[in-house]
Fold this sequence. Notes:
The protein is mainly beta. The protein has helices at about 1-30, 80-85, and strands at about 45, 45-50, 60, 65-70, 70-75, 75-80, 90-95, 100-105, 120-125, 135-140, 145-150, 155-165, 170, 185, 190-200, 205-215, 220-229.
Amino acid sequence: MKKTAMKLVALGMVIGVLGTTGAVLAASSLSSIQVSLDPIRLNVNGKLLEGHGIDEKSGQYFNGKKHVPTTMIYEGTTYVPVRLAAESFGYQVDWDGYNRVINFKNDKQPPTGIVAGSLESKISHVANKDGSIDFKFVVKNQTEQEITLTFASGQRFDYNIRNAKGDVVKIYAADKLFIQALGEETLKQGEEWILTDKTEVLPKGEYTLEFWITSNEEQAKQTYRFTLK
């Protein structure tokens, strides 16, 4: 009887330790963070996002159980509920709790050929005898419709150049001033928009240029690698 009692006590101690350890491990995966809950309006294709669980009076999002903030900002990144973001673009969202997987579904078939709403960009360069570099950026409207890009200033594009170590050695807009005025650029179907810039002398080596349009809509991002010999 005594041996049996001792075994039960020992077993209880083991279970208690394992239970405590599990609680500690679970608690260790949680952390406290400070976020900004200042309300932010959400626009989809230029229209204010309404419905999709957003309460008209409070502006909060109903997650199926309670009303929670529609957005929050943490260390410069804005977070939006996955279901809210996905459903606003026509996707159905399912949560697989067992495998911890978020499934997105859209009954629409992916478009083929020219994709409406997309821009294509190409980059080329010429190294001059004085060591400077001429860059040419060609942005083409590869869509079936006319596209109008809107800008918050006189700046139309930006780029940065990184060396082989990944260090940024050139930022196009860093030493420039742009007029603070709204502007537009319209591209018809198949039309090309050519942008150029000349940089100062760069040391010999391998570089990566990251280019993008600074519009409020399509950005036409492009990465271009080149070597200076």
